[in-house]
Specification:
By secondary structure, the protein is an alpha+beta fold. The chain has one domain. Helices cover 50% and strands 16% of the residues. Helix 1 packs antiparallel against helix 3 and helix 1 runs antiparallel to helix 5 (166-188). It is elongated and about 65 Å long. 16% of the residues are buried.
Length: 190
Amino acid sequence: MKPLKRSSQIWLGIGSLALIATYFLPIWRIDLWAPQYPEGLSMKIWLSKLSGDVDIINGLNHYIGMAHIKEEMFPEFKVLNYCIAFIIAAGLLTTFVRSKKGLIAFLSLLVVSGAVALYDFWQWGYEYGHNLSDDAAIKVPGMAYQPPLIGYKELLNFGAYSIPDTGGWIVVALGIITIGVIIYEFNYNK
C-alpha cells in the first residue's frame, strides 16, 4: 500500500492542529426561547466549564424540579482536555506515519469518540430531565424535560435548541477532512 500523499498529510495535520482551538472555544450550546425571554437564554459547554445564562436557567429549572446545574456534576470536565490532546496526538501521528491503515484507525477513533460523547450528553440530559424533585412548584404529570441531544424541542412554553458551538464544529470539520482524505487516498493513490 502506498503511503499517504503530501496533500493528505497537510490536510490531516492542519485538521488535527485545529483542535487546539477547542481549548479556547465552547464545544456545545443550548439556547432557550420563551415569551418572557424573547432575547433568549444560552448555556455554553466548554471542555472544562460552563458559561452563559446558567444562573438564570437554574432559577427557572428550580420551578419544575430540575437539579441545579453546576460544573461539579460533570466529571467529564476533568478528562476532556486529555481526550482532545490524545486525538490531536493521534492525528499528528497518523500524519507522520503516512499509513492508510493508520488513517482508518484515526477515523475509527473519531467516530467512537463522537459516539461516546453524544451518548454521554444524552445520558446526562435524560437524568437531568427525568429525575425531578417531588417538591417542584410546577408539576405536569407524565412530563419530562430532557433537553434535545441535537436540534429543537419544545419544553412547556420554552423552545430549546441544542447544537455544536464553534469548537464542536471544528471537531466535525476534522471528521469531514479525515473522510475526505480517506476517499482521496483510496481512489487516487492506488
